[in-house]
């Protein structure tokens, strides 16, 4: 696999669980990065931690690593090239994909280890990480 350029998004994120029947909340979409998935079981929202109301079930403390695409949807092994070094470094991850770009959420406490693992695997950090 060719080295993947990546960058770390600045804003801390939260992964939220809401009832599957609720409307998409306006607070969830108030920043540039958010992801919403509805299933028959739940409405899952990934958004800026600072936006999540206290009464919402959420796991905060995530940071997003953007794999700088665009990537064709038929590319094989892209996520594996990121997942393997993260797993070897003991960093948990939550992947999020869009049409052209992939993101990996990692616990904020493991961000430095994640960046080091990706760089160690030959991937290239595009800009300095902001805390």
For the structure shown, list the relevant keywords:
single chain, 131 residues, alpha+beta, VC0802-like
Question: What this model shows, in words?
Answer:
It is built from 2 helices and 8 strands; from the N terminus they run E-E-E-E-E-H-E-E-H-E. It has one domain (5-125): VC0802-like. Helices cover 16% and strands 33% of the residues. By secondary structure, the chain is α+β, with helices and mostly antiparallel strands.
DSSP strand (E) fraction?
25-35%
Largest sheet: 8 strands, mixed
Query: How many strand segments?
Result: 8
The number of helical elements comes to: 2
What best-fitting shape do the alpha-carbon axes yield?
globular
Please summarize what this structure is.
The protein is of the alpha+beta class and 131 residues long.
